[in-house]
Automatic annotation (TrEMBL):
InterPro entries: Bact_solute-bd_prot1, SBP. It holds the Pfam family SBP_bac_1. Keywords: Signal, Sugar transport, Transport. Transmembrane segments: none annotated. Residues 1-30 form the signal peptide. SUPFAM superfamilies: Periplasmic binding protein-like II. This is Multiple sugar transport system substrate-binding protein. It comes from Antiquaquibacter oligotrophicus. Gene3D superfamilies: Periplasmic binding protein-like II (3.40.190.10). It comes from the Bacteria.
Length: 432
């Protein structure tokens, strides 16, 4: 179990700018600079557990190499605004940046703002690109080009009250149908207790609905970029998601994102909560959770097509295409993401890194709940995206989330899905 002190360390830091040490070792594939001559680099990133862990590693790296890396940390929105201004001006005053893959990678790569890192990641067998989780490698690859190294991962899991299941003689659900049956049995709205809590607001729910969609055999779009949100599989997934919240969820579910839904579970007022594994620490903090001793973790339950939860990369680190120090930038990225330092980040900063070897190490994972570690180690059939894949992803989420809201409200899901299909296809066609 993680202490409240350790859980607190994982909270996102306030925006700050700090200068710390970093550096480089041997040269990688040609990037337009002589890395031996580089004495300073700059990295821009959003506040996260990874950037907190980076502070310590960067000091170690500076001591090894003498090369200084200036680290600039921002909030997510501030980061994106800063990056777009600088990159649109083809600025070379920073060399490395961490970014949210599914929100900006398509836009940034189309604009020529991200350096092609394909040769870099394949240049050193000892560094071992194949040691990174396959869904993470897929997430940072677009049209066969690698645009970054994943530094954090996140997957969809099932949180549940072990005490209540045991008292009721209910086995841990392994299928979505079993989940629905268990939620129905434990649902007690007259006493302010609900079978399940999940996101129900139109935009926030999309990422969590995605695992249901995949496990029903659907997706938001096909390989050719055509919308697929009105297929029989998609409609069934919408209806199932909506029924869970309509029949066994809390009132006002359509106004709930993760803060509201997770709070219900943390307060001890729901039997199940399905969301990202990164929220585990919320439930393990005695200051904010009434379920510290009763929360347990299960793999995402299987639907008609099996269990296919998302496993995404919330932060990856790439190289500024306009940097004059690409080789040196790669040397720093390679060092900070190697096996040794990945294990250090996992064990000392509880950063959910992307390397399989780190998760396989019992010592490195000792600070994580055993149930979560087992889920990560046994992850199969995961999908590397949790939302539509296009540049206008925010607008797409507005569109594809609508049928789920209709389902929660008990409306005509089929008609809503058809309208979403038409609107989403127009959006996709516009990008083509």
């Amino acid at each position: 179990m993680i202490s409240s002190r350790r859980a607190t360390r994982l909270a996102l830091a306030v925006p700050l700018m700090i200068a710390l040490g970093a550096g480089m070792t041997a040269c990688a594939p040609a990037g337009g600079d002589s890395s031996a001559d580089v004495t300073e680099l700059t990295l821009i990133a959003a506040n996260s557990p990874w950037t907190k862990g980076l502070e310590t590693l960067a000091v170690d790296y500076e001591e090894e190499t003498g090369v200084k890396v200036n680290l600039e940390f921002y909030g997510n929105e501030q980061l994106n605004d800063t990056l777009k201004v600088k990159l649109n001006a083809q600025s070379s005053d920073f060399d490395i940046y961490a970014y949210q893959v599914q929100d900006v990678m398509r836009e940034f790569s189309r604009n020529g703002w991200l350096a092609d890192m394909t040769d870099y990641v394949s240049s050193d067998p000892e560094w071992d690109w194949d040691d990174f989780q396959s869904s993470a490698r897929d997430a940072v690859t677009l049209d066969g080009v690698v645009y970054g190294v994943p530094v954090m991962t996140e997957r969809h899991v099932m949180y549940y009250r072990s005490d209540l299941l045991e008292q009721a003689g209910i086995p841990v659900p392994t299928t979505l149908d079993e989940l629905a049956a268990a939620a129905a049995k434990l649902n007690n709205p007259d006493n302010g207790f609900y079978g399940i809590a999940m996101r129900g607001a139109k935009v926030p729910l999309v990422t969590q609905f995605s695992s249901f969609l995949y496990s029903y055999g659907g997706d938001f779009q096909d390989e050719d970029g055509n919308a697929t949100v009105d297929t029989p599989e998609a409609i069934e997934a919408y209806e199932f998601y909506g029924k869970l919240l309509k029949d066994y969820g809390p009132p006002g579910a359509t106004n709930m994102g993760w803060p509201e839904a997770s709070a219900i579970f943390a307060q001890g007022n729901a039997a199940f909560y399905l969301d990202a594994d990164s929220q585990a620490y919320t439930f393990l903090d005695p200051a904010n959770s009434a379920v510290v001793d009763t929360v347990a973790y299960g793999s995402f339950p299987a639907g008609p097509a099996g269990s296919h939860p998302y496993s995404i990369v919330p932060q990856t680190v790439g190289i500024n295409e306009f940097s004059k120090k690409k080789d040196a930038a790669w040397e720093f990225i390679k060092w900070v993401t190697n096996e040794e330092n990945s294990k250090k980040l996992l064990s000392e900063a509880t950063v959910p890194v992307a390397r399989d070897s780190a998760w396989a190490d019992d010592e490195a994972t000792s600070g994580f709940p055993a149930g979560l570690v087992e889920i990560v180690r046994s992850s199969e059939g995961t999908v590397g995206h949790d939302r539509p894949q296009l540049e206008q992803v925010a607008l797409a989420r507005e569109i594809v989330g609508a049928p789920a809201v209709v389902a929660i409200e008990g409306g005509n899901v089929s008609d809503s899905a058809k309208q979403a299909q038409t609107d989403f296809q127009k959006l996709l066609d516009g990008e083509k």
